[in-house]
Amino acid sequence: MFFGYFTKKEWAYVILCTACIVFQVYLDLRIPEYMNDITYAIQTGSGQELVEKDGFGMLICALLSLVSSVCAGFFAARFSASFTRNLRLRMFSRVQDLSSQDISEISAASLITRSTNDPYQLQNFLGRSLQVIVKSPILATWAVLKISGSTWEWTVITIVGVLIIAATIAIVMWSVMKYFKRVQWLKDDVNREVRENLTGSKVIRAYNAEEYRTSKIYDASEALLDNNVRIFTRMAPMGSMSSTVINVMTIAIYWTGAFLITDVSDQDTKFQLFSDMIVFSSYAMQVMTAFMMFTGIIRGFPSAKVAYGRITEIIERKRSVPEGDFDGKTPAEGEIEFRNVTFTYPGRKTPALENVSFKIEKGQTLAVLGSTGSGKSTLIKLILRQYDPDSGEVLVDGRNVKDYTRRALFARLGYVPQTPIIFTGSVEYNVNYGETAPQRDHEDVMRALRIAQAEEFVSRLPEGTETVLSQYGKNVSGGQKQRITIARAICKDPETLLLDDSFSALDFKTDKALRQALKGSMAATTKVIVAQRVGTVMDADMIIVLDEGKVLGKGTHKDLMGSCGMYRDTAIAQMEER
Ligand code: ADP
Ligand code: MG
């Protein structure tokens, strides 16, 4: 619920803003009363003094009204800034919390517009319109109360005017809402195209695909333009329509007023009627102005509503993989077990893993071998619980991963993703990363770098471990990035290391040295190593050979050379290559 997101402070801003507005409306509506007195006094020639006194009163009212309007604006701005900031923070922490499946469903491009453009739209709208939203209904009702009971002809004219404007607003809003909904989605499209263009610029150039890419961006922008033109052509008549109605209404009031005044014979009643007419038309103006203001801001309403909906859709989204409540206070053991695990990606027909079972103990090394697409990364993802299996169980230390809280599960695992992720910051920052960082010192970082075979190249960097790496690690090579991310996992000192194809960019010599260092220095740590080279997996305690999600063979190098044809063939082929 919208109001449910307000903090106490934000409620206070809204209340203060409303108070200022009520006071302002009171003052604004006092002014016509002074006008009534003055016109009557001038016409009947009763006293210069009264005119001066009332004039002074009017001036004070106008000044105080200005002050309270400034205060109302201040509180409204405070409110909208604070409200959208809190929404954005909530959304951000929610995004951190979502599973990979959720994020791929929403799409990264959409998440970017949702956390930048959408809060901006909302803040912009709230900042400009909070005052009007509060003020116009108060002003309109109060002004109507003041003029009700006056001459009925004028009241009828005002009501007709209000109805015409209200109907126009309703019809226009109804006709543009669907285009407003589309704006944000089209912005997502443009955003995605631009993002792909920027991240893929090297490839695009190398394939001379600039024209094709440009045409894609052009199409996306064109669709957005077309949509916006539709919105504005539908909205355009609204402003002029309202001012026409106001003008016609004023004329109608004076016109009927002229007849009414001619009809009465008594001079004093004529005067009274005349000043009534002045006052009435200025109240009627106030009512209309309230509506006009409303029309002015209502244009921003559809896009703000859509933006708000898109933000809360994320905030209120249920994680597709819920977490358990075991917070991991038992001793860590480092045991990993799969029991008849089958898993199919959403929207796929064939399983990515089929009936996989294995068990490894503390300190052992499990190697997963298979060609591209055989399900190796999927196996790792299931341990990390990025997805839940269709059937079977994934157990860490004898307990189903579903039972763990995410913190507890991740505290046990050291994960090195297939594509290395480097954050903007020094080598030291990138290695000593996350929850465990405060408990590690420079010595630990150096040790991790040494085991990961990164010590040498890091020492050759301009400022050693203080060298700042850019995001995506543009200033280091692929193999160097891999070793830094491996060092990160080692530095965490988890009970289990999950290395997803982390040796792929390493040469054979480094690969071997790294494996030996892991074996020697991380003897108590369980290791799951995903690889495509037999050389990398040879000395593992257990090797699983995967092909299209199925386990072709399971055992040590020696076992598999005897029992698994595919393994033997791969081994021989790869030996020959060398
Ligand atoms: P490997 O790591 O062995 O190269 P993966 O485990 O990444 O293979 O992929 C196994 C299979 O699952 C492949 O056929 C791949 O196309 C499919 N796959 C991987 N990720 C997804 C995903 N997010 N959605 C749908 N299918 C996927
Ligand atoms: Mg993979």
Question: How would you explain this protein's 3D organization?
Answer:
Helix content is 65%, strand content 11%. The radius of gyration is 36 Å and the shape is elongated. The strands form three sheets. It has a six-stranded mixed beta sheet with strand order 6-9-10-3-11-12, sandwiched between helices. Strands 2-1-4-5 form a four-stranded antiparallel beta sheet, with helices on one face. It is an alpha/beta fold. The chain contains 21 helices and twelve strands. Magnesium ion binds at residues 376-377, 418, 501. Residues 345, 348, 352, 370, 372-378 line the site of adenosine-5'-diphosphate.
Percentage of β-strand residues? 5-15%
* Largest sheet, spatial ordering of strands: 6-9-10-3-11-12
Tell the overall outline: elongated
Helix coverage percent of residues? 55-70%
Spatial extent as radius of gyration: 36 Å
Bound molecules: adenosine-5'-diphosphate, magnesium ion
How would you describe this structure in keywords?
single chain, 578 residues, alpha/beta, 6-stranded mixed sheet, 4-stranded antiparallel sheet, 65% helix, 11% strand, binds adenosine-5'-diphosphate, binds magnesium ion
In terms of topology, how is this protein built?
Layout: H1 8-44, H2 48-97, H3 100-106, H4 108-115, H5 117-147, H6 152-199, H7 201-206, H8 210-235, H9 237-263, H10 267-298, H11 300-315, E1 336-343, E2 353-360, E3 365-370, H12 376-383, E4 391-396, E5 399-400, H13 406-412, E6 413-416, E7 425-426, H14 427-431, H15 442-451, H16 455-460, E8 468-469, H17 478-492, E9 496-500, H18 508-521, E10 526-531, H19 534-537, E11 542-547, E12 550-555, H20 557-563, H21 565-577
Parallel strand pairs: 3-10, 3-11, 6-9, 9-10
Antiparallel strand pairs: 1-2, 1-4, 4-5, 7-8, 11-12
Helix pairs in contact: 1-2, 1-5, 1-10, 2-5, 2-11, 4-6, 5-10, 5-11, 6-8, 6-9, 6-10, 6-11, 9-10, 15-17, 20-21
The structure holds adenosine-5'-diphosphate and magnesium ion.
